[in-house]
Design goal:
Layout (H helix, E strand, L loop, with lengths): L6 E3 L8 E5 L2 E6 L2 H10 L8 E3 L11 H32 L3 H27 L8 H25 L6 H23 L9 H25 L8 E7 L3 E2 L5 E12 L5 E14 L7 E7 L7 E3 L4 E11 L6 E14 L3 E3 L8 E2 H6 L12 E11 L2 H7 L2 E9 L4 E7 L13 H10 L2 E4 L3 E4 H10 L4
Parallel strand pairs: 1-4
Antiparallel strand pairs: 1-2, 2-3, 5-7, 6-7, 7-11, 8-9, 8-10, 8-12, 12-18, 12-19, 13-15, 14-15, 15-16, 16-17
Helix pairs in contact: 2-3, 2-4, 2-5, 3-4, 4-5, 4-6, 4-8
Length: 463
């Protein structure tokens, strides 16, 4: 006669699981009566009477199936979203970031994406069969990474005064909330108890998190606000000359922009002025002879030690009749570091005059008393995808404003943002200098006495 197997179902543990023992051999743990019947059938045992119920009868199943499934599904969704965000940042920054630190950060995000995928896979075991002993700690690590990624992205957005897209902000906020909730759920279940030295592992995790956070803050916030590019603008007034009739004097001026620093830069905009100082004016005012753009088209790269030079000629009518005291030349330019951002290759060809902008409905931009203006504009890309996401879309605009004294103004802002220009205290330009290493280059004012130039020209006047 066949002997009926001995079946014992243990009391519920802290998670609501009940251990199944058949003929003295453990067959795993089950969440519900339905799972118990499946275990018995696989063991060749017919479900029925004769089961030794320990710590509660067949109706005692404290683990709520639907609640457990919903909890596991929400955690899995959070892990997948975090993995997707980390993979997006990691794939772009690990190969395309402009700095070595940015690429290292990219590989770190790829590593965190792998951790989240492991946590996602561990969730299927932890919330169902519990066959893998370290599934719980894997979930805890995934929740820590999820909380870390969400908090870092939001903190960087606040620190950089960024304007990321609304979906990104909602996603990061969701990661932060979901990470906090997952940590709360897993800590209540004390999933770390299966580890041999949970205290040491926790200390190691805290130290690693502090080091990673410090590295991100140092490379993404501190370093961009420190060093500045070293670009110098100079001018030389050459030997003047007269035409045969002596009614015009030509003054040759050589202009220079040199990268004297150690990092390559792009010249966003440049301007020079050649003017004369009026001897009869008690306020020491100047009369403009000739303005111009030194680097044309703008956006040209300038490597360390490289120099851009140009010769221009200014003309003075009736040089022997005017009452001038000196001829003066000055150069100004804006440059940014190539390791901080990139601009579209078509930036130099994007120039439009006021008439073209008015046809596009942009006649009130910029709000300035300029009689006419010329505009260059381009979208920019940050030094890393991490910064692109947390700062949001931005573009650079270079205005060449024709006023009584023409000026160049550089503006970095989000597309569609409207603001008034402040030429005296350009707050936006200070912020751009912190973010992108934007340098305002103002060369020394070079002056030569007009009488000296006139004598030189007369000495070389052709007979």
């Amino acid at each position: 006669m066949d002997t009926k197997p001995d079946v014992a179902v243990g009391p519920p543990d802290g998670d609501g699981l009940r251990k199944v023992v058949i003929d003295g051999k453990s067959r795993g743990k089950v969440w519900s009566r339905h799972e118990l019947w499946k275990v018995l059938r696989r063991a060749g045992v017919t479900p029925g009477d004769g089961i030794d119920w320990q710590g509660g009868g067949s109706s005692v199943w404290p683990a709520h199936t639907w609640g457990r499934r919903v909890t596991g599904a929400v955690m899995a969704l959070g892990f997948l979203a975090t993995a997707g965000m980390c993979a997006w940042i990691g794939m772009k920054d690990s190969f395309d970031a402009l700095t070595f630190a940015g690429r290292v950060t990219g590989f770190l995000f790829l590593f965190m994406a792998v951790v989240e995928l492991i946590a996602f896979a561990a969730g299927f075991d932890y919330w169902r069969k519990r066959k893998v002993p370290y599934a719980g700690p894997a979930l805890l690590l995934g929740a820590l990474v999820e909380f870390f990624v969400g908090s870092v992205l939001i903190a960087m957005t606040i620190a950089n005064e960024g304007r990321p897209s609304v979906p990104c902000v909602l996603l990061w906020s969701g990661l932060l909330v979901c990470g906090c909730w997952s940590l709360w759920v897993l800590c209540r279940r004390k999933v770390w108890t299966v580890l041999r030295n949970p205290g040491r592992i926790a200390i190691g995790a805290v130290v690693s998190t502090v080091l990673v956070t410090t590295n991100l803050a140092y490379t993404q916030i501190y370093l961009p606000s420190m060093s500045r590019p070293l670009v110098q603008g100079t001018a030389e007034i050459g030997t003047p000359s007269l035409n045969r009739s002596g009614t015009k004097m030509y003054i040759r001026v050589r202009l220079h922009i040199r990268n004297s620093g150690e990092v390559p830069v792009h010249i966003l905009g440049s301007i020079y002025w050649i003017h004369v100082r009026l001897a009869s004016d008690p306020k020491d005012k100047y009369k403009l002879l000739k303005p111009g753009e030194l680097v044309n088209p703008p956006g040209r790269a300038l490597s360390p030690g490289e120099e851009i030079s140009e010769d221009v000629v200014a003309e003075i009518e009736d040089p022997e009749k005017v009452d001038y005291e000196a001829v003066a030349v000055q150069v100004e330019a804006y440059a940014f570091r190539q390791d901080r951002m990139t601009i579209d290759a078509a930036f130099g060809k994007s120039g439009k005059w006021r008439g073209q902008l008015e046809e596009e409905g942009k006649e009130n931009d910029p709000p300035s008393p300029a009689k006419d203006y010329f505009r260059y504009q381009s979208d920019i890309s940050q030094s890393s995808e991490l910064l692109n996401l947390t700062r949001g879309r931005e573009r650079v605009t270079v205005w060449w404003l024709y006023r009584r004294r023409p000026v160049v103004y550089v503006d970095v802002a989000s597309p569609g943002e409207k603001k008034e220009f402040n030429y005296n205290v350009p707050k936006e330009q200070v912020q751009a200098a912190d973010r992108y290493g934007l340098a305002f280059v103002r060369g020394s004012l070079i002056q030569t006495p007009y009488a000296e130039l006139l004598r030189e020209a007369q000495a070389q006047r052709p007979n």
